[in-house]
Amino acid sequence: MALPKQVKIVEVGPRDGLQNEKDFVPSATKIELINRLSAAGLRNVEAASFVSPKWVPQMADGADVMAGIERRAGTIYSVLTPNLRGFEGALAARADEIVIFGAASEAFSQKNINCSIAESIERFAPVAAAAKEHGLRIRGSVSCALGCPYQGEVPVASVVDVVKRFAALGCDEIDIADTIGVGTPKRTREVFEAVTEVFPREHLSGHFHDTYGQALANIYAALLEGVEIFHASVAGLGGCPYAKGATGNVATEDVLYLMNGLGIETGIDLAQVVEIGDFISNAIGRPNVSRAGKALLAKARSEARSEPNTCA
Amino acid sequence: MALPKQVKIVEVGPRDGLQNEKDFVPSATKIELINRLSAAGLRNVEAASFVSPKWVPQMADGADVMAGIERRAGTIYSVLTPNLRGFEGALAARADEIVIFGAASEAFSQKNINCSIAESIERFAPVAAAAKEHGLRIRGSVSCALGCPYQGEVPVASVVDVVKRFAALGCDEIDIADTIGVGTPKRTREVFEAVTEVFPREHLSGHFHDTYGQALANIYAALLEGVEIFHASVAGLGGCPYAKGATGNVATEDVLYLMNGLGIETGIDLAQVVEIGDFISNAIGRPNVSRAGKALLAKARSEARSEPNTCA
Fold first, then answer.
1. Helix B156-168 and helix B185-195, axial crossing angle in degrees, nearest 10
2. Res. B238: pLDDT tops 70
3. Where is the Pyruvate carboxyltransferase domain (chains A, B) (predicted)?
4. Tell me: the pLDDT tens digits for B55-81?
5. Fewer beta carbons within 10 Å, N or C terminal of chain B?
6. Are B258 and A221 a contacting pair at CB < 8 A?
7. Do A214 and B247 lie within an 8 Å CB cutoff?
8. Residue B217: which of B246, B183, B266 has the closest Cα?
9. B284 pLDDT above the threshold of 50
């Protein structure tokens, strides 16, 4: 299959990336991050989570963040909504899209939320109905789609089953998420081949983690399957809770470098994203784990040093 | 094209990886590294460089290293030989394969060795002839094959031209090296498609750097072109001299994780290589930059901690 001519990159750094940071990131920093990302051309930013602050204290300021950002025309600001209460918050905050979620792994579902996969998704029915009623987009995220920290192998049929359930709830877009980064291109292709049988390819996205270094190879494999939407996190924000010190979300800079090299349009300015990666890494005191980001920053700095001194 | 059923991994850590380390790595450490790598199943190890110690002081102990290692039956120990003097050293050290090299970038060749590409390769003619005479394998390494730090773009025709010159010298194997890691899968495919027209695919190898995070995507693209030999460096040893702090050689652990996931045989024990990566990173006081390596080490340690205390 020919590669897509253009893709949509969904920036998940402000929510998925930051949510596991121990020290609270000030709302002003989150707002600057989101504003800079949308200004760099990211047309979809996962901005907040309307979850109980007891569960995820880092996301307690979702309403303030959503109220503080500059809304860029055409940009979709997504928020996570675990329940109707969260949906009400999202609605009040004028979110463009809500995100609901479920694991493709029965063991993960039982261990994390103490119920079956089917039950966990059924619980989102009133949230999805309310979103439809108010004209909000709905995104369904299938976690552990390429492997699970508890049960290991996840059958492709389980992923297909969750995709069908999300489709039945009226999801506009569905993410195939390799939550722990264990997938490789073979499994990526198998899963996307299977799910495109039950949901339109152009509304499926790939959410890859780089824990085992496989994310870009998987993205390339998904591109070859015709997938046109990918998630990424600036500076690779977000570690892996299942392997301390290991890498989490694939870095937006690395994904953009790939797309640029393949001649696939994203509408996003890589140089700006590299600067944003530097900004947020410094702001929260965390190493920048984007390889392209680090290489481009090093290059820019060495070029700056060898420039003639124009101040003389 | 179907993926290959098996591939050869050439471990370049002991030479390409270590050569830019500032502090001298003791010969005993180099020897242990090479012995452990061959014991883990790596059938081809780039072990030393017979270059003037004035140029590369880290490689000054090549003869001692080659004399100290245990030769594993069937394993190819390669050494770099920049000239006839180096070849004599390699012969005395009982190297199985010599490595000669040339850039596909005219600017790189001029800047680095002050002569044209054609001249630089012609200088290897007596070395290649001597290797043939003594029955040593010859590997030709084409550097800057996907991009150059000085001239940027490198024409595919230049890569093809250097491959032809190496073929004319009698090379048994030829490396397509992305020395600065700027390539993406599109260029990787274009270059391999072109060079397989002039040299047998099964004797071409891919040498990728992960500076921009693209190495595994490029390896996957090369696998789809039928390439069966790949270079890698345990723990990602070897930085990028053109971008301080940036990543160099792709990590062996990450490549093995990919091959295992694709069901491609390597004959190499990933778990052992992960331990070797930990050993050499600690030995030389350098962070382990293999993502699979770090994730698997973190996993092994957390599993070890949660084991019941069997000492009680």
1. 40
2. yes
3. 7-274
4. 999 999 999 999 999 999 999 999 999
5. C
6. no
7. no
8. B183
9. yes
B257: nearest CB among A214, A242, A243: A214
Residue type, B141: S
Of B214, B260, B302, nearest to A258 by CB-CB distance is B214
Q: Report pLDDT for B309.
A: 33
Amino acid at A47: A
Asked whether the predicted pLDDT for residue B312 surpasses 50, the reply is no
**Amino acid at residue number B190:** E
Q: Is A251 on the interface with B (CB under 8 A)?
A: yes
> Number of C-alpha atoms within 13 angstroms, CB side, residue A1?
15
Instruction: List, for residues A216-233, the tens digit of each pLDDT value.
Output: 999 999 999 999 999 999
Q: Are A210 and A250 in contact (CB under 8 A)?
A: yes
Across chain B, mean pLDDT equals: 94
* Mutation target vs A (from B291, B297, B306; most A CBs, 10 A cutoff): B291
Give the pLDDT mean for B287-309: 83
**Which of B196, B194, B206 has the alpha carbon at shortest distance from B156?**
B194
Angle at which helix A215-224 crosses helix A252-262, to 10 degrees, equals 40
Whole-angstrom Cα distance, residue A73 to residue A81? 23
- Cβ-nearest to B216 among A183, A211, A213: A213
Contact in structure between A307 and A249 (CB atoms under 8 Å): no
Q: Using the beta-carbon criterion (under 8 Å), do A213 and B290 form an inter-chain contact?
A: yes
Which residues face A152 on adjacent strands?
A: A148
Domains parsed from chain B with CATH numbers: 8-306 (3.20.20.70)
For residues B220-240, give the mean pLDDT: 95
Mean pLDDT lowest for which of A155-159, B250-254, B267-271, B298-302? B298-302
**Looking at B115, B144, B240, B311, which residue is catalytic?**
B240
pTM of the model: 0.95
Count Cβ atoms below 10 Å from residue A134 Cβ, excluding itself.
11
- A138, A213, A209: which is closest to A177 by C-alpha? A209
Distance from CA of A44 to the nearest CA of B (A): 23
Active site residue B240: yes
Q: How far apart are CA B188 and CA B210, in angstroms?
A: 14
Are B294 and A214 in contact (CB < 8 Å)? Answer: no
Residues of A in contact with B220 (CB under 8 A): 185, 217, 220-221
A210 to B244: CB separation less than 8 angstroms, yes or no: no
Query: Does A277 contact chain B (CB < 8 Å)?
Result: no
